[in-house]
Amino acid sequence: MEIKRITIVGMGALGVMFGDFLTEKLGKERVEFVANSSRIERFKQDGIVCNGHPCDFSIVDEEEKGKPADLLLFAVKATGLKAALHTVRNKLSDQTIIISVLNGISSEGIIGEVYGMDKIIHCIVQGMDTIKDNNQVIYSHFGQFCLGIVDESAAKQEKLQAVVDLFSSIDMPYTLEDDILQRMWCKLMLNVGVNQSVMIYEGTYGTIQQPGAARDLMQAAMKEVIRVAEKEHVYITQEDFENYVNLVDHLDPNGMPSMRQDGLARRKSEVELFAGTVIALANKHGVDVPVNQKIYETVRKMESEY
After folding, report:
1. pTM of the model
2. H/E element, 284
3. How far, in Å, CA of 235 to CA of 229, rounded?
4. How far is CA 95 from each of CA 30, 140, 156, 262, rounded to the nearest angstrom?
5. What number does CATH give the domain 6-176?
6. Per-residue pLDDT tens for 164-209?
7. Which homologous superfamily does the CATH classification assign to the domain defined by 180-304?
8. What gap in Å lies between CA 183 and CA 181, rounded to an integer?
């Protein structure tokens, strides 16, 4: 199995960053975005700039048929996932591999319910500090993919190997995970702490990189994720916790997570993916998560004022 055609849905910060990288490495004849006609028209009018240079992307209409993707990359926000599932409907074949770079731990299940879990390679992306402001995307840390498979099979191994072969050939930063679900929970822990604390304190990464109430909130929220994960038979160690705090401390202090960017744009955030997920699973297992409960209520109140 060889990946020749890559389709991306989502022209947010991550979609643009990865799309720019892939287009530069492989050419626009092999890399495309899929969108509806109104989004295509908006791109034609406004363009996209990534780290100072205009992006020359191939963008195809969602109505196009007969050219399925070998690799389909979901790079939308959770609030746009339902629409994206419709947008990509003509880009699937029996052989298509799907990767989601959405935050949280639920997008793979949602996508798989529609298009089949057999197509999905589980993934998180981490370590980037990408920001999108109107049509401008900037980043100083590209980060990396963490890849793995949940249900071992020869077919899944073949799909994973195809992704690895592609990424290796273009120097895409990646690691292979022996336990991708544990890594996904670690990323959820990170998002629950970082994204929500920076949004509530209306700051940047620098806000949580220094001692104070925001950093305390971040760490308390992360520790509640560890307790809930254990009930789901996923074990996050103290070393994992410290490594992720260390990762945050090395991000650009002037950067900010996507949730804070949503707040600045007065958009609905992904709080359901973060505190909402923690609260739902805590209720399932009878675990108290007062920090995330308070965060959830605070964010919802902030959003009600938009």
Report:
1. 0.88
2. helix 277-285
3. 6
4. 17, 35, 11, 35
5. 3.40.50.720
6. 999 999 999 999 999 999 999 999 999 999 999 999 999 999 999 9
7. N-(1-d-carboxylethyl)-l-norvaline Dehydrogenase; domain 2 (1.10.1040.10)
8. 5
